Amino acid sequence: MVNQQATSTKDIGFTHEDFAALLDKYDYHFSPGDVVAGTVFSMEPRGALIDIGAKTAAYIPIQEMSINRVDDPSEVLQADETREFFILTDENEDGQLTLSIRRIEYMRAWERVRQLQQEDATVRSNVFATNRGGALVRIEGLRGFIPGSHISAREAKEDLVGEDLPLKFLEVDEERNRLVLSHRRALVERKMNGLEVGQVVIGSVRGIKPYGAFIDIGGVSGLLHISEISHDHIDTPHSVFNVNDELKVMIIDLDAERGRISLSTKQLEPEPGDMLKNRDLVFEKADEMAEKYRRKLLAEAEGIPLEEEIPEAVEEPVVEEAVAEEAVAEEAVAEEAVAEGEVAEEPAAEEAGADETEAVAEVETETVEGTEEQEVAVSQPE
Q1: What range defines the domain where residue 89 resides?
Q2: Is 256 exposed, middle or buried, given 0-12, 13-18 or 19+ CB atoms closer than 10 A?
């Protein structure tokens, strides 16, 4: 009997040491950043154990289970479920890897918003918080920032919480974790679909600046530059208009890409200086003068001279310079409004109010219609 057992062991020729060596030979090497398949085999109160083929079960904590807030692991994972996981950290002292689903969702979310930006898509999102610089929204699970100068709403920013807004992308930068959007541009684009150069519209003076007046035309703002008010010289727009004045203005330029509408009353003057001497006559003759302006544009495009010319304005280089001055206040939002914000961990949902404001970094101050407005940057979690 003893001899038979000895013979049997001798025939196998495979020791425990050989078995351990074989396991080491076929053991997979896992590195942080890898995306691997895994199966849930144990649910824990604040996480789950995942079999990914390593010697020791990997662990995914509850905060890494989703791009959104999770209160219970069962909201995301089920026992025996197989799915992809992101390896977040290398093995700890116990040989255990830490996994993440949230990082996979972030990568896919950034890919999606880049695609939406390339398509120049308009997206909709609810405002979940506001701060001194603007409003905060979520796009594909990513936290986005709408600068105050890009919010076109009559109510105070604080009253926008819970509002569903149409938005256009200003900046999508995954490397710097910044997502900046514009409500104003989305509204202007929609409004522009029904507008054309040479069209006369009725608006009201919403704000007055040294370089011109902002005119509200159906919920969007256009700029009536000081050089486009009258053929006669004007020292300041304040000498011509008051806030809430109702005007007839003509559209002389539509810039959908930059979300800007340029307006003119000068081109509606029957005689140079009529906006200063007889405004009612200008408005009475507005449609007639606009028709002449459109004919003039058409003739210039076709190279045909007109017998009757509209009074020409003296060329003022300041036009484009001052429009550029206004553009600085608007475009700095996309380029500088988030220039100093550092990457920060995503706060819990209940902290999205006051704590959300503290988590962002101030980067720029600009004056919009007499109100000092501080632009604030927003960062995504690492």
Answers
A1: 31-100
A2: middle
